Structure prediction request, 258 residues.
Amino acid sequence: MLSNFIISKRKSRLINLGLMAFLSFYLIVGSEAKAHAMHIMEGFLPVEWAIFWWVVALPFFILGLRSLTRITQEKPELKLLIALAGAFAFVLSALKIPSVTGSCSHPTGTGLGAVLFGPLAMSVLGALVLVFQALLLAHGGLTTLGANAFSMAIVGPLVAFWIYRLVLPTGKQKLAIFLAASLADLITYVVTSVQLALAFPAATGGIMASFIKFAGIFAITQIPLAISEGLLTVLVWNWLSSYGRQELEMLNLIKTEN
Prediction:
């Protein structure tokens, strides 16, 4: 029993050290990229496309408010975990690497919240993250909020949620978490590439040529970032499994050991 306890303590320390190492990496990278850090920047999209993405994103936000209200009314104990999911997305998505003009590469942090509370709830948390970043950090903007919310707070969490659900029956939960977080990150930038391509089609080749250009540039930095985000999310999941077990059991995300 004592040896098991010591091993368990060592694992917890390793998890915490790993988490600190990943966060340190992102903080260093983010501080170096601060001058260029942004989602799709304020005023970058033509007015008609800015309005279009606002209209598309708004219904998801409204449904997300209903989802969050239901969760907090039925299980008010989960409010702290909801705040943690929002903070996780805020920290990761605020740390960026210069990439495409008018945008950048960065982790999104939305996979964790999507797995915990569903994609609709994450649409609200992600949108709030984007609002705070736009107002406090000059990352992104209010005119482009609809476009940024659609890619990062709506499509990304939807992909994360369904990837997790598809992989989970294999019994490999950590793999499901990793793939959910990584692919949510990547799909966010596929959508961002589509948004930029629609707004700025190439003179030769049109929208498709523009999409290939944007997606190709993003891929250089975004693929390693997505893998790193998947690993970090697994570390956070391990920490939650150890210290937030009651909350995860409440969400039926881990099995109760008798």
Notes: The chain is about 75% helix and 0% strand. Residues 1-11, 20-37 have pLDDT under 50 and may be disordered. The first strand starts at residue 97 and ends at 98. Strands lie at 97-98, 104-105.
